[in-house]
Amino acid sequence: MADLATFVLIGLYFFVLIGIGNWASKKIHNTEDYILAGRSLGFWVFTILVVCSICSGMTLLGVSGFGYTSGWPGIWEQIFVPLAAAFCIIFFGVKLQAIGNERGYLTVQDYLADRFESPRALRALSAAAGITVSLIYLVGQYAAISIVLVWLFGIPHWQALLIAGVIITAYTVVGGLYAVSWTTLFQGGILIFGVLLMAPFVIASAGGLEHINTVIAGIDPNFVEPWFPSPAYASYAYATPEFLVSFGILLMVGLACAPHVVNNVLAVKEARYFKWAPLIAFTIYAVVMFFVKFTGFAVRSLVEEGKLVLPDAVNAQDFAFIVGVEHAIPNVALWALFAVIVLAAVMSTTDRLMLTVGTSFAWDIYKNIFRPAAPDKEVLLVSKVAVVLGAGGTLLLAINPPPMLAWLIWMGIGVMLATFAVPLLAGLYWRGATGQGAIASMAVGLVAAAGFGYWHQFVGSLPVHFSLYALVLSALSMVVVSLLTAGNSTATLDGTRTGWFIQSPGSAPQPRTPGATRLADQDSPRQQ
What we know:
It is a multi-pass membrane protein. The chain crosses the membrane at residues 6-24, 36-63, 75-94, 125-152, 158-178, 190-209, 243-267, 279-299, 319-346, 379-399, 405-430, 437-456, 468-487. The chain has 528 residues and is mostly helical. The protein has helices spanning 4-25, 31-36, 43-55, 58-70, 77-103, 108-115, 121-153, 157-205, 208-219, 241-256, 259-262, 277-304, 320-328, 332-370, 376-397, 405-429, 435-459, 466-484, 490-495, 516-523. The protein is globular and about 65 Å long.
């Protein structure tokens, strides 16, 4: 479908991204600038960054594909995912931003190592887990980008992956979080505007929601119910009440605690942003998500009535939004704009994930475990090399796309939930949580997620999302091991504001001491 206008607009879009990366590179003077943009993110840059870090390739392609295959029982996703942004800002952001400023955290692994007095064992485990889940998640993002570029230019899948990988890697490597945050603001604006502009045309072309509901109810009456009856009677009818409970926990908490999302709160310029950011992030994302899901319904209706045909592909439903726009808006000039909108959606998370992989390896593993004396310049170089290697590895894994994009992304979120949710929540709010408990919790969660995920995918389907079993085992491990081991020092618990509160009464931010985390690591009485 690509014409000259499409090539020009896509080229301009990529040119702007590279330009932002080049501008951002001039603002980087040390590791903190690269990882946290100098803790300078303003309200809108931060809010849109959180939304788009969660957004991913699933928002346009996966969400519409899920709507296409499951109808209204999947509508709960449109509440759970936006709630993740609010949950992250409220339950993680308020505390972590304050503690991070005081104690010099650059990553969430800095917090875990400090709070649990485990500068090596827990830091290494959490960094490795963060890199692993980010790489899994990245495969889904590259699959989404490939869908768009293959559709646009009719090029082979591997060429589409290579183009996407080179562009995103380039501006991420040179500009760090400065580049990622400002390109995300640009991409987020395009995404929001584009969905609000184009989704109503697709829905109207299918006859409006009332007609759409009539058509999809003819396929399966349960397509217009709030959930499918239990037990599941078909492969698409998995959104049963018990599954939706696990689904809500998966999306709301799993996405909120993902390293590439929660790390953003450490880069906020002012804590007062947390007052309105949760509500605004939730509202923006919820509106976008509902429109995209309704588009999936509309395309299913159009296909059922013989007005549309999806591509002959294993993940055909993930093309729903694309073919819906082609059908509803036959203006080729607007297709070029739509192409940029879809690319903005899928690239806005990909760059954040790549940066997380690079910084987790360079800062948490290379600098804090193997070479504590490494200078900033060396750490920055290692981070950039890690970004390139991570991008290359995930591009290879993405050559064979999954049957359904949403499932691959949900798998990545499930591993995040099982490994990070309990250590983070227990660390922030339970003074009895110990370093040994955190290590046990994260290790058990990671292994259990892999085991139950494998079982669900290759042995037999489970009644709830596999991550729920892993989360329960992770929580039990935290509680049991913490009760059996010595607690952390009172000074550490007080210094990391641990307790059953979001904002401690009368607490005021203290001046940050550069390198405080590293000093705490070296002087910790219980190093693991």
